[in-house]
Amino acid sequence: MFDNTPRQPFLPGEITLRKGAFKPLYSGDGGPGFLSLPVVESPRERRPDWLRVRLPYGPKYRKLVRLIDDNNLHTVCQSARCPNMGECWTAGTATFMILGNVCTRSCGFCAVQTGRPEPGLDWDEPRRVAEAARIMALKHVVVTSVNRDERKDGGAPIFAETIRRLRKEISGCTVEVLIPDFRGLWDALQIVLNERPDILNHNVESVPRLYRRVRPQAVYERSLKLLRIAKEQGLRTKSGIMVGLGETRDEVLALMDDFVASGVDVMTIGQYLQPTKMHLPVVEYVHPDVFAYYKQVGEAKGIEHVESGPLVRSSYHAEQHV
């Protein structure tokens, strides 16, 4: 069994995370060129077989990583240690993380470093994102960001400029933005909505009962309101959650009802995996049959498409959600 004792997350500025040397950890059951998924395991219980995946670590992957690094960019695929990175990049989808790589919030699940970001905005970042997406021949680009709560605009102008740049540089490219809640400052949200992204994504991440542990600086009702505002303006909306954090099935189904009431078109459901020992522990490894059940029920309730599976992440199969 896991230790489910609630842990108080660190607040911005209380810890400093530094990038360490990259040391591939080979799984032993695959040939050269594959990297084990770097997720913490309980000393008494190993991850089930359906969560044993391997990340690509070959010449093509290294070339793409070099492109990202050379342009001083960040992808959430790398920062969040996503298990689907190779599949998505091959399918012509990637998720760029703008506004730096330091977040002002301290969510209990997230591998992105927490602290005080460098002041100001990098106005050349949208150009670099568009250039990298063009070189990578991406067909669908997902743009997300850290939270920049120290700013009244939350960094929204950089989102808007990135959407404009992508459409200018890549003919026919579709754009999805996975945005923060901008602390409920709806004028900042409107800056993004005015650019009419193909998909407006904002994750609620977990059921409301667990917010104090999972998203201590967020408000569930505020996230739902953001989704409703976007839907009222005619945008295609999307949101997602992680399971395995201690939620009940009834709570997940009630959250689906909230999504239906808010007009959410696409929902993603994936297994939470503990990125480091400093983060929240996994309470349960949810069986694939339960994910299949969630998909069936969610779509029956009226959500147009539910992407549900142990390894599903917010941008998984994103090119199919437009």
Mean pLDDT: 81
SS element count, helices:
10
Strand sequence of the main sheet, in spatial order? Answer: 3-6-7-8-9-10-11
Give the overall form: globular
Strand-and-helix sequence, N→C?
A: EEHHHEEEHEHEHEHHEHEHE
Runs in which pLDDT lies below 50 for 5 or more consecutive residues are 19-44
The main β sheet shows up as: 7 strands, parallel
The share of residues in helices is: 25-40%
Derived from helix and strand composition plus strand pairing, the structural class reads: alpha/beta
Q: Report the β-strand fraction as a percent range.
A: 5-15%
Rg, Cα atoms, Å: 19 Å
Report the strand count: 11
Q: What is the first-to-last residue Cα distance?
A: 40 Å
Task: Give me the secondary-structure topology.
Blueprint lengths: L33 E3 L17 E3 L2 H12 L5 H4 L5 H6 L2 E6 L3 E2 L9 E2 L10 H11 L4 E6 L10 H14 L4 E5 L7 H8 L5 E3 L9 H4 L5 H13 L4 E7 L5 H14 L3 E6 L16 H14 L3 E4 L14
Parallel strand pairs: 3-6, 4-5, 6-7, 7-8, 8-9, 9-10, 10-11
Antiparallel strand pairs: 1-2
